[in-house]
């Protein structure tokens, strides 16, 4: 099993959330054979130096885990973050190409087309367009994974931490749909020849937009679904501990959640990705302050522990082992042109205790 979307934290500013070592351990216990790490770390993975340092950190963690657990085995890859600076993009592509010739630890590029967690967002449409133009001019044919939420349709003034449900109003479904439409337009107009991957798709209309575009564009489009967008819905945020369920993109109405789960079952979604993004309980509840002195109310949940339970749910819904393999391994290997040895080991369904809170506590 491959999880192509995790945030392993660590570093001077994020180690209190989780270490790379702990994240890799939980992934292994969950039955995961490989993880692809996102670049909004501290520091961000936007240069050769930060990327190589991150790989060394992961390698050191893996060696320690092997000594502590003789059967431990996992492969660690990562995305390089892109900025609107053409020179930075050029250097990042050089790093990506270097890794393609070796063991390919840099699996692709990541762009945040909207504000989320960290400082890698590219909000201005002209700058987003420039990213695709630069990638096309430089002949990039790998994966560009994008967090799609259009800033123009989001309104932080609508967010009220006393009513966590308002987070879903402040970041409405239209923000995702419109952002995906933008990215498709920019990619097509620039002559992009890589793979545009829509991370954590959460809206049925987004999926319909992707399916229509696939028939017309000159590049490949893929999308991933998280267990939380497949199983949880926004009205749960009205109940006890609603702040636990704050994430980007937010949970959607139950009608959308059910349609996204069915779309996964029907084979319309390429793969499952956890978007594992742990925070401390204090950060989730706004008891910690950000660098501007404001309560954090952090967005993101620990997703790795729920993977085994989610796979079990899919099996009960009638998915065959071969379909599970496609959603958790084969489609990812094919898209990233990578080979990962699979162990077929069963993940433990009892990993929630590795973190301070369980966002799936009420999921039977």
Question: Which term fits the overall shape?
Answer: globular
What is the helix tally?
Answer: 12
| Parts with pLDDT < 50 across at least 5 consecutive residues | none
List the secondary-structure elements in sequence, H or E.
EHEHEHEHEHHEHEHHEHHH
Relative helix content: 25-40%
Output the CATH homologous superfamily. Metal-dependent hydrolases
- Strand content is 5-15%
CA radius of gyration is 19 Å
Ends apart, CA distance between termini: 23 Å
| SS class | alpha/beta
Q: What is the spatial order of strands in the main beta sheet?
A: 1-2-3-4-5-6-7-8
CATH class: Alpha Beta
Into how many domains do the coordinates divide?
A: 1
CATH-defined architecture? Alpha-Beta Barrel
Largest sheet: 8 strands, parallel
Count of DSSP strands: 8
List the helices and strands and how they pair.
Layout: E1 2-6, H1 20-29, E2 34-37, H2 48-68, E3 75-81, H3 86-101, E4 106-113, H4 125-137, E5 143-148, H5 166-170, H6 173-190, E6 195-198, H7 204-214, E7 220-225, H8 227-231, H9 254-265, E8 271-272, H10 281-284, H11 307-316, H12 321-336
Parallel strand pairs: 1-2, 2-3, 3-4, 4-5, 5-6, 6-7, 7-8
Helix pairs in contact: 1-2, 3-4, 4-6, 6-7
């Amino acid at each position: 099993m491959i999880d192509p979307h995790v945030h392993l934290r660590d570093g001077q500013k994020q180690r209190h959330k989780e270490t790379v070592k702990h994240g890799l351990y939980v992934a292994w216990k969950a039955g995961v054979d490989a993880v692809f790490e996102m670049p909004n770390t501290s520091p961000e993975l936007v240069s050769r130096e930060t990327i190589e340092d991150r790989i060394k950190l992961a390698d050191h963690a893996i060696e320690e885990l092997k000594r502590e657990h003789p059967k431990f085995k996992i492969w660690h890859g990562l995305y390089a973050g892109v900025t609107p600076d053409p020179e930075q993009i050029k250097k990042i592509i050089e790093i990506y190409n270097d890794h393609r010739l070796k063991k390919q630890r840099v699996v692709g590029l990541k762009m945040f087309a909207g504000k989320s967690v960290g400082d890698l967002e590219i909000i201005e449409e002209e700058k987003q367009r420039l990213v695709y133009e630069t990638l096309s001019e430089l002949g990039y044919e790998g994966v560009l994974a994008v967090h799609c939420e259009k800033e123009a349709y989001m309104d932080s003034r609508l967010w009220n931490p006393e009513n966590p449900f308002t987070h879903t109003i402040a970041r409405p479904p239209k923000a995702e749909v419109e952002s995906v439409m933008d990215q498709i337009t920019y990619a097509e107009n620039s002559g992009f020849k890589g793979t545009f991957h829509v991370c954590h798709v959460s809206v049925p209309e987004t999926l319909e937009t992707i399916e229509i575009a696939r028939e017309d564009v000159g590049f490949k489009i893929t999308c991933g679904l998280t267990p939380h967008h497949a199983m949880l819905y926004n009205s749960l945020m009205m109940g006890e501990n609603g702040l636990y369920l704050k994430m980007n993109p937010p949970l959607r109405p139950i009608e959308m959640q059910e349609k996204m789960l069915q779309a996964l079952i029907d084979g319309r979604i390429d793969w499952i990705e956890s978007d594992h993004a742990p925070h401390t309980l204090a950060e989730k509840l706004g008891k910690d302050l950000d660098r501007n002195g404001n309560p954090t109310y952090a967005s993101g949940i620990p997703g790795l522990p729920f993977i085994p339970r989610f796979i079990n749910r899919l099996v009960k819904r009638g998915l065959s082992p071969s379909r599970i393999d496609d959603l958790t391994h084969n489609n990812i290997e094919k898209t990233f042109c990578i080979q990962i040895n699979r162990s077929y080991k069963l993940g433990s369904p009892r990993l929630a205790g590795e973190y301070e809170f369980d966002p799936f506590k009420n999921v039977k």
